């Protein structure tokens, strides 16, 4: 028999492959419907097997015209553009919505006309009406500021008013000739809108629902991570605590203040669920410096803290992988997941991840914790099992019953930042030694030890460990100076001049560009490199800027306050000390100033042992000028060397 006309005359493509058609669970059908379904299916299958109509009729009793209709029905596509297939053979199954040609109109001869399909025809006839419903339901941007989420009953009111504006009149025109004026049809249409545009509709139910809808259920599942350090997750979490900060003025006076803006930053290994490192920040929002400190703490081998809280001890087998497992000391991960928060996306963070850790960066959406479920679950665990059990907890929300005058409790029990950091260190050490369901109820540390017998991880080469600077930023500056006015060579970085003895006596370098490695955690000293890569040495900040450790953020804040005429200092003042005094005076009334002052103190303690030349560059220049003056007075007259010979003696 020749090929069927339905198949050869229509372009159905892969739809004619009945082996890929959606199937039917016949157990849900009645016995009679099952017989009808199987009979129809047999007829369709024989049709595609190129059986004759007589054979199909004899086997199923279905006429050729009906068979052709059934085949065409199976080849239709649904709203998702999926072929109906065998689903179209279910008895009484409607695959196309009813379409009418005219709107129902009430007349004396027919006061109650059939209204099937009337609502959809109404929207097709009056496109403005359809646009009005969509605009109200999805609350598009061109709407007013009122009613951020419009209830369905109010959409119906607007719908009726729009019908009147379009010239539809009661009582004869649809929808005015229905008992509920099209309310039920409108509600059903809105339900279909919600199903069809799920992402947009989810915004009506809040930010959390919208994030969940957009982040889950679509695309491939994430790969199963087993190997340690194959993938890590990073995030920051605001701790629900208030703590006491004790600050001291230069005169030795004590300033006691309370802050409740504390951030815990952590990095967790996905394969073993082990926490690799953390950092606590007291800034209003955690910064790129805080992110880099967290990365550093996850790589540099961990050492237990000296605990001062009575009764607080580390668990016997607890700790951090880098300090307990030799194979992962200075270990580097392959991939890191974090959200697109401003601090995470800063150039210095991306540069250090690329240059030091040498890992792939997989950024996700801001405030979208689904992709980083392990780190988010970790923060929730610490809150419920740790921070929320303390008397100074602020609770998870203002009406949390656990919130009981946390600021007064913080002062009463003298709960300080040091106590908090000790508690966090012990909590994480205990977590790493606690059985975890995600690794078959082994502890994260045990899981890592077992898997390291099968896998290896990348470790930072030993020769790089002493030189690596996690908080360094690469910059480029031009060497300035002018021999004609007696100004020795220097470079300027963030409004401060830098030089050293070698640069100060190399006028041939004036106008040349040098590369700088800037330790953003301590701006007293920069490392300078010539264009060919040769090191020019350490350049120290001139004046009082080279005395007290300070971060890039602190220096920028100082000059910002100076421009606003809120901070004043002279060349004889240490600007860092002036700024600290400014913060300490404001700490009595502003928590943010207290946080900044404490962060400065932490930074100064952290960098007090930094390798900084004890001779300030100002004294270096004075010494050079004095030495050269003596040479000038004692030397005999010599012919001036040619320019060509002079160039050979200069450093480039």
From TrEMBL:
SUPFAM superfamilies in the record: Ribonuclease H-like (SSF53098)
InterPro entries: RNaseH-like_sf, RNaseH_sf
Domain of life, per lineage: Bacteria
GO molecular function, a single term: nucleic acid binding
Residue ranges with Basic and acidic residues bias: 598-611, 620-638
Region described as Disordered: spans on this chain: 590-652
Protein name: Integrase catalytic domain-containing protein
UniProt organism field: Paenibacillus antri
């Amino acid at each position: 028999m020749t090929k069927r006309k339905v198949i050869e005359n229509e372009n159905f493509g892969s739809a004619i492959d009945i082996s890929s058609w959606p199937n039917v669970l016949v157990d849900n059908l009645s016995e009679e419907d099952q017989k009808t379904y199987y009979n129809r299916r047999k007829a369709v299958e024989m049709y595609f097997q190129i059986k004759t109509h007589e054979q199909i009729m004899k086997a199923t009793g279905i006429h050729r015209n009906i068979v052709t209709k059934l085949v065409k029905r199976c080849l239709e596509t649904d709203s998702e553009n999926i072929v109906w297939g065998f689903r179209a053979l279910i008895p009484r199954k409607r695959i196309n919505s009813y379409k009418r040609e005219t709107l129902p109109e009430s007349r004396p001869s027919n006061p109650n006309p059939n209204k099937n399909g009337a609502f959809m025809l109404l929207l097709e006839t009056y496109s403005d009406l359809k646009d009005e419903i969509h605009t109200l339901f999805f609350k598009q941007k061109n709407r007013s500021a009122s009613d951020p989420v419009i209830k369905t009953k109010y959409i119906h009111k607007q719908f009726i008013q729009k019908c009147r504006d379009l010239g539809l009149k009661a009582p004869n025109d649809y929808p005015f000739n229905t008992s509920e004026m099209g309310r039920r049809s409108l509600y059903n249409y809105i339900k279909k809108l919600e199903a069809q545009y799920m992402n947009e509709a989810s915004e009506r139910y809040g930010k959390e629902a919208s994030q969940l809808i957009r982040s889950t259920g679509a695309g491939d599942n994430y790969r199963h991570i087993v190997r340690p350090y194959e993938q890590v997750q990073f995030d920051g979490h605001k701790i629900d605590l208030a703590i006491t900060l004790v600050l001291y003025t230069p005169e030795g006076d004590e300033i006691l203040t309370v802050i409740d803006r504390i951030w815990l930053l952590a990095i967790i290994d996905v394969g073993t669920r082990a926490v690799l490192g953390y950092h606590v920040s007291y800034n209003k929002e955690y910064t790129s410096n805080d992110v880099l400190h967290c990365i550093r703490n996850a790589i540099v081998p961990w050492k237990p803290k000296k605990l001062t809280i009575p009764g607080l001890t580390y668990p016997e087998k607890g700790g951090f992988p880098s300090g307990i497992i030799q194979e992962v000391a200075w270990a580097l991960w392959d991939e890191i997941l974090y959200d697109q928060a401003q601090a995470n996306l800063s150039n210095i963070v991306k540069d250090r991840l690329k240059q030091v850790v040498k890992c792939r960066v997989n950024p996700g959406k801001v405030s979208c914790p689904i992709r980083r479920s392990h780190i988010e679950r970790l923060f929730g665990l610490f809150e419920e099992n740790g921070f929320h059990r303390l008397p100074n907890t602020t609770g998870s929300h203002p009406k949390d019953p656990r919130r009981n005058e946390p600021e007064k409790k913080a002062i009463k029990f003298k709960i300080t930042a040091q106590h908090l950091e000790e508690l966090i260190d012990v909590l994480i050490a205990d977590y790493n030694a606690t059985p975890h369901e995600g690794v078959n109820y082994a502890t994260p540390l045990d899981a890592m030890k077992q898997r390291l017998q099968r896998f290896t991880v990348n470790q930072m080469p030993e020769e790089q460990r002493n030189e690596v600077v996690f908080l360094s930023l690469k910059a480029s500056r031009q060497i300035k100076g002018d021999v004609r006015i007696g100004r020795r060579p220097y470079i300027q970085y963030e409004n401060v001049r830098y030089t050293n003895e070698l640069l100060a006596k190399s006028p041939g370098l004036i106008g040349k560009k040098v590369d700088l490695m800037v330790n953003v955690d301590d701006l007293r000293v920069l490392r300078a490199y010539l264009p060919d890569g040769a090191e020019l040495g350490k350049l120290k900040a001139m004046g009082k800027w080279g005395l007290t450790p300070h971060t890039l953020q602190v220096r920028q804040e100082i000059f910002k306050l100076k421009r606003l005429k809120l901070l004043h200092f002279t060349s004889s003042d240490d600007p860092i000390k002036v700024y600290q005094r400014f913060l300490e005076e404001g700490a009595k009334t502003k928590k943010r100033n207290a946080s900044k002052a404490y962060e400065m103190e932490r930074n100064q303690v952290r960098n007090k042992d930094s390798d900084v030349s004890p001779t300030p560059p100002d004294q270096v220049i004075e010494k050079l000028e004095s030495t050269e003056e003596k040479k000038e007075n004692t030397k005999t007259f010599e012919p001036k060397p040619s320019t060509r010979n002079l160039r050979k003696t200069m450093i480039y």
